């Protein structure tokens, strides 16, 4: 099967600062990769490379076997910790906008049947994330959790192949975060998504991911801290990783959402149950 994403010896530098180095990574369709690492080690930079907002300084990234487009596109959706939605548009307007711009890039307006179809799609997506009762509200009238539901709907209505999540639940209360975990797992299954999610919470990473990627510097020169970038120090298929490795990474045993399978770990079939 062609990998959904493939990094081939990717480096990312800003001036003389090496942020990421020697990244080699193959991700199958339907995997849910959670990404952890120290602050400033390049996690957001990795997502921006996948989005097409940045291009690698060296190496290349392939999307379904083709070079990744050098600009953001509807096949890659992103949700940030905050500020993903447009404050001056209603909930419905936020989700409609992408559909309108895709169909009518110049005016961003749709008319007649095309507009009704787009509205139907947007409403269905908002209902799927639990915002069916809030279509006419504005983002300032929504709680933090509702704003993140809106941001998810805004991305998913474009039917992306890849969903990029940059600490999307970091600012939410624990109870709300739990609800969002269940929502994102359902959306992942229902929309055949391949997910890359940055989190500071390693337990969240274990709970949600099918695969946990740990980023850290592979080498370090105290006299030249910018000389070396981060790479993947652990690539853990969750459910198949031995207890010793997990304990080393976590400092204690993991809490995963799944029982480890007895033998091998298979990424879930897109849309399949796990
Ligand atoms: N556009 C840019 N120009 C110059 N340096 C940048 C740019 N973007 C990121 N950096 C630098 O790259 C490094 C990695 O930043 P990045 O935001 O990817 O880290 P991170 O792991 O996501 O951090 P955090 O966990 O704190 O969000 C930082 O030192 C940052 O200052």
Topology of this structure?
Elements: E1 5-14, E2 17-27, E3 32-37, H1 43-51, E4 58-63, E5 66-67, E6 76-79, H2 91-103, H3 112-128, H4 144-156, E7 162-166, H5 174-190, E8 194-198, H6 202-208, E9 211-217, E10 230-237, H7 243-250
Parallel strand pairs: 3-8, 3-9, 6-7, 7-8
Antiparallel strand pairs: 1-2, 1-4, 4-5, 9-10
Shape by Cα distribution: globular
CATH fold field value of the largest domain: Rossmann fold
| H/E topology pattern | EEEHEEEHHHEHEHEEH
Q: Which structural class is indicated by helix and strand composition?
A: alpha/beta
**How many individual domains?**
2
Q: Can you give the mean pLDDT?
A: 86
Unreliable spans? 252-274
Largest sheet report? 6 strands, mixed
**Going across the major beta sheet, what is the strand order?**
6-7-8-3-9-10
Terminal Cα span: 20 Å
Organism: Thiocapsa rosea
Region (Disordered): 245-274
Protein name: NitT/TauT family transport system ATP-binding protein
Domain ABC transporter: 5-242
Describe this structure in words.
The chain has 274 residues and is α/β, with parallel strands linked by helices. 31% of the residues lie in helices and 23% in strands. It folds into two domains: 190 residues, P-loop containing nucleotide triphosphate hydrolases (Rossmann fold, 3-Layer(aba) Sandwich); 80 residues, no CATH class. It contains seven helices and ten strands. The chain has a six-stranded mixed β-sheet with strand order 6-7-8-3-9-10, sandwiched between helices. Strands 2-1-4-5 form a four-stranded antiparallel β-sheet, covered by helices on one side. Helix 2 packs parallel to helix 4. The radius of gyration is 19 Å and the shape is globular. The two termini are 20 Å apart. The C terminus is likely disordered. It binds adenosine-5'-triphosphate. Adenosine-5'-triphosphate (ATP) binds next to helix 1. Adenosine-5'-triphosphate binds next to helix 1.
């Amino acid at each position: 099967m062609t990998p959904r994403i493939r990094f081939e010896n990717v480096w990312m530098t800003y001036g003389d600062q090496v942020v990421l180095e020697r990244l080699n990574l193959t991700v199958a369709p339907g995997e849910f990769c959670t990404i952890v690492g120290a602050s400033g080690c390049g996690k957001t930079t990795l997502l921006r490379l996948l989005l097409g907002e940045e291009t690698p300084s060296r190496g290349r990234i392939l999307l379904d076997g083709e070079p990744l487009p050098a600009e953001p596109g509807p096949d890659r959706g992103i949700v940030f910790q905050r500020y993903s939605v447009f404050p001056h548009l209603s909930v419905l307007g936020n989700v409609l906008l992408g559909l309108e711009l895709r169909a009518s890039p110049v005016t961003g307006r749709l008319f007649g049947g095309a507009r009704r179809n787009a509205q139907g799609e947007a409403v269905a997506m908002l209902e799927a994330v639990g915002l069916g009762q809030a279509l006419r509200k504005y983002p300032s009238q929504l709680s933090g959790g509702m704003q993140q539901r809106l941001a998810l709907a805004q991305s998913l209505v474009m039917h992306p192949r890849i969903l990029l999540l940059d600490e999307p639940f970091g600012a939410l209360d624990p109870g709300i975060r739990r609800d969002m975990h269940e929502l994102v797992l359902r959306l992942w299954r229902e929309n055949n998504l391949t997910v890359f999610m940055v989190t500071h919470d390693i337990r969240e990473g274990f709970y949600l991911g099918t695969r946990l990627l740990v980023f850290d510097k592979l080498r370090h020169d105290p006299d030249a801290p910018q000389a070396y970038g981060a790479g993947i120090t652990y690539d853990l298929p969750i459910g198949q990783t031995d207890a010793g490795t997990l304990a080393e990474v976590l400092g204690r045993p993991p809490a995963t959402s799944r029982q480890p399978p007895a033998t091998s770990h298979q990424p879930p079939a897109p849309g399949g149950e796990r």
